[in-house]
Amino acid sequence: xxxxxxxxxMFLGVLAAENVWAQNSVNGVVLDNNRKPVAKIDxxxxxxxxxxxxxxxxxxxxxxxxxxLRSGVFFVKIRVDGTNFKPVMERIQIGQGNRTSRTSGAVSxxxxxxxDFNLEVERRNENPNPPINEVIFVxxxxxxxxxxxxxxxxxxxxxxxxxxxxxxxxxxxxxxxYLLALEKLGYEYIxxxxxxxxEGVFTKALxxxxxxxxATSGLGISQFKLxxxxxxxxxxxxxxxxxxxxxxxxxxxxxxxxxxxxxxxxETALKKAKKLSRDKFxxxxxxxxxxxxxxxxRYGEAADELELYLRAKPDAENKKQVEKLIxxxxxxxxxxxxx
Length: 339
What we know:
alpha+beta; Serine Threonine Protein Phosphatase 5, Tetratricopeptide repeat; five-stranded mixed β-sheet; 47% helix; 11 helices; 3 domains
């Protein structure tokens, strides 16, 4: 399946080789606050940009399972719509020795991550005025449209993106305001480099629900890929307001501002991403290093960020090159001080 390659995946110039067989998997158990299994609740697997990849339901024993995954960053999210549970999502990294990983001894080197969830009950009187971005959007979807959407997810699981797009387009024809279908269709258009169509679909989704973080983020990506950087900056700013805890969104915003040569805004966004990621997101440090070295001539801080980059990614394939860059940056910083 052809997928969009964002600038943050191109920082190093050369991407790490992917395991073409993608045999990694994630599984776990979803329990309630009484340690009882939660059956038939939706579990979503999101990519590093918080886009939906796969969805499944827990079994009667509360077990969920995703397989056939590449190495990289993902999010596992439990959809709690229509329940009294608190929202929960966990960031995971496959292929980096995650704390909960259990590596099989198989020749393939496949990694199995076990991520268990203990859901907490939401006390309705704790926050009588929830933030607007936490409002649940509910639709009464006609069954035929819902079937097309479900078929689209099956096609994606079978690695048939063109058939999935056809099913999603049909779901939207049957129910033009189908928010989930519109959002998913928009991201599939992005994956197929159909950015103009993606922009139109996300615009429509935001007419249905102006507070959709997923649609707002997708619109920003579409605008950026179409070269509308100023519009993309405004849109992604709106996305950060809807979800102020998304490190990847602030990273993307920082890149946009850097492209616009608005370096102060770029630094603010990137430092926010750094804080949210708790220094565990290597791409944030790499982007800050680029900003400090190339744009702000702050060589010492650039070296600091590269050191944090290696701390967050100790097994980086380009480790020796980065160590050389750190020395170069330190030397430049000393030269400036002696002038």
